Amino acid sequence: MHNRLFRITLLLLVGFCVAAPAQAVMNQRAVAAGAYDGILVKFKAGVSQTRMNRAFSSAGSRQHRGFRSRLVRGLTRAQIGRGYTLSSTLRRLRNNRDVEFAEPNYLLSAYVLPSDPQFGSLWGLHNTGQTGGVADADIDAPEAWDLQTGGSVIVAVVDSGVDYNHADLAGNIWSNTAEIPNNGRDDDGNGYVDDVRGWDFANNDNDPMDDNNHGTHVSGTIAGRGNNGTGVVGVNWSARIMPLKFMDSTGVGSSADAIAAIDYAVANGARVINASWGGGNFSAAMQAAISAANNAGVLFVAAAGNSSNNNDNAPSYPADYNLPNVISVAATDDADTLAGFSNFGANSVDLGAPGVRILSTVPGNAYASFNGTSMAAPHVTGVAALVIASNPGIGIPALRAALLDNVDPVADLAGRTVTGGRLNAFKALGGGATPPPPPPPAVVSVTPGNTSVVLGGNVQFTATGGSAPYVWSVANPTIGSISANGVFTGLGLGSTSVNATDANGVRSNSATVSVSATTVILISPNSAQLRVGESLTFTASGGAAPYTWTSNSPGVASIDSNTGVLTAQAAGATTITVTDSAGAFVNSGPITVTAPPPVTIVVTPTSGSVAVGSTLSFSATGGRAPYTWQVSNSAVASIDGNGVLTGLAAGSVTVTARDANGATGVSGSITVTAAAGGGRRHGGRHGGGMMGRGR
User: CB–CB of 515/495 below 8 Å?
Assistant: First the structure.
């Protein structure tokens, strides 16, 4: 087959799932696993062009003269000749003694999982629970910004290009100052004409404008311009984004073009490369290029993949190249759990970072939210650039340690990533332990929540929570007034609301009170204190009988809806509501339930003996009468409701007394002996048997 497309899915980890040719979105062209475009060949050192030509000719292939790599010396690109197959071409080249390796030029494509935009909800940087997640499940960006906001670190975004005119990115786009714009010359001699702001390797021109969305979104997370009053902010406020486009408008690019972009990034001063893409098989050429970047001190941050895959068992490249400068990133959500789509691996995926519903820039001065490990990787890239800004001379080992040794431990990443944690920018910058999240705002509550009162009558309101003293207010002073102690007086017919404001200015919920000219419903008692297990009967007057009773916290105290008998169930506080037959209702004051004190039941006598046929009387103290009685062995003795035990057969038993609340006390051993001479003896209430003779 001639130049059959052998494609890899590049993990542009922003919202597109690459496992099987996942849902292609955002102009994403679906490609088959293993798709390719020609081949990559690395010749051994010292091989002349003549011998290269001979090798290509013998394999029926033709060299692509426009491709070159400074990082991987001897690497070249070729097309498969007409009438030849990939396997036959590779076999002939691999058997040539001048060839170090030959492999398909895999195609890569973006992974994107789009979601609804949530403008202004950058939970990954600072999570207050604003998206319904867990507060502080973020990278602690505000704390980090107290230490470092950016600097001019160059970050290469090897992707689908970047909208360099976007209002949130334009001020942070890298510029090749050695090149004179639009003069048609290669002023700096780097092999690229007028490459003022990077290069488009997909179309081989000097305009790396994004026509797919992915690269622009990644760039906004890394370095959306900070403190400019526009749109979003990136992890790093002022890093220099180097746009290196190797994927076309459909989100597909080749290994050769990705390698060329990595080559350009290293040659032009990038300190970090963001690779939110992946797919395809192991590539010796790609590994060699990333290894050369490592030797040049360039960090390579890669998305782990979006196929819910264990990378320990099925590697995902380039994230799984075992090189010192490669950091593989999984995606977490706003609840600090591993995203369902995210790849993982206890030995292959280094850490997690926010990657679900991530809001960032897209072309045309717009913003959108995407999901994916593509979104997680740029968080790590941005933090890496912050660390470099604080320590420009830092090397790969120390930079890697700053990122991986200072994560926040996350239970859902334990055993699923190398570090078991999620990225923390503050700690990576040496901030130490992250300060605890601010306490939740105080809540002031007013009870009763809804009530009624007769004209001229009073009702007591109570405030809890916040900091006393409270200041009381009434929304409509023509309906009623309220004292400094919370006593409301009805002044006019109608309804109004009552609020309490604590000493710190925290305002309560609104309680509603209705003032009527007729007699209001009254509850008696209006408040009460009970212990668990105790009961109390409430009555109502006024309104129209019959009444219906409800408890507002039945777990604390239940109430019979018809009789008003309340039974305390558990320690706590509640109120009750009574409603008359006309629908009028009123709430009681607070009803407090406390746990009963420990109860000790003492059974006397504690030990003794009784003959068969004789009796022995027992009594109990402590707890709450009446008591019920029980023996441990009914074949040896019986006991009646008054605590009188009768011996039935030789043996021993214990006697248990149970009070009205279920508390119990147990006697010691009571021995039943055979009656002397087979006779029968009867004792008094505190005697009988041997105990009777003792008395």
Answer: yes
